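Hey,
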Amino acid sequence: MTDDVLCFIEGRAGRIRLNRPKAIHALNTGMCAAMLDVLTAWHNDPAVEIVLIDHAEGRGFCAGGDIRMIAESGAGDGSQARDFFRVEYQLNHALFTYEKPVVAFMDGITMGGGVGISQPAKYRVATENTKFAMPETGIGLFPDVGGGWYLSRLPGKMGEYLALTGHRLDGAECVALGLASHYLPADQLDDAKAHIIADPASIDATLADLSTPAPEPRIAAHREEIDRLFAADTAEGVVAALAADPGEWAAAQLATLRSKSPQSMKVSLRLVREGRAKASFAEEMRQEFAIGSRVAQSHDFIEGVRALIVDKDNAPQWKPATLEGVTEASVDAIFAPLPEGEAWTPA
């Protein structure tokens, strides 16, 4: 176990509390392993009727994974990065298939790895503080932890839009898109948790009683533009559509995409498109592990982490520097299945 995540039984609930506030509770390998172990232990424990996932303190639920470690590993043999992805994805899959109800409290920043441990939950509680995003194209990565599954199942071309731009959604927008099941004021969360811990069977009534109507989702105003401008078969086609549109919103999205890794954009778009046809979450995780194993050692990821996380100059030098420079063959190689013995399997 690790002090970075607190796992204990309270009342009739298993509690998982992320506890790395200085890192906005970013997940490391030890945290993922500890959560996976405790979920396994609670599976057949009659004392645990429900599982609650939240954060102990600080301004966000979970900012993602430990990308600095992943990049440092990727610059070497990549073994630690692969170990992290393997355990993290096993955790994501365990939550997705868990037989007892899981409640995730998406209060504050919920990005990357935080999406991976909240979206599998039956109950996903957003608040006025929620900032939900899969911003990986900005660091040369891709929306993993099941992003290819969840984003591909959003209405219209919303998945393509979120995957390519990394746009941040608020709590109301999460509810409108089905990424959150409930909207509660942040000051009601402690009450909700206390009621659920005391009487898990009444969770639906508890969350309904404490929920408030979410504000009008701002993203709704752009649904038509998203569905029209992000419909192209290729990333080049999306960019061309945005460039041809005279509107301010399209211009802003175009500027955003021009800051992203061209390789990541092509990988992310293909991930969402192929994710719609995946027959199981395990199949999605196998695909994402193969991609992650390769992208972790790619120039763009190591450079993206340097530019945005380490040196903070916000001036990544992508290679290739253009979408046209990213060949179909190079993307095919990133998506190729791993050899037997190296491929991801559930825990």
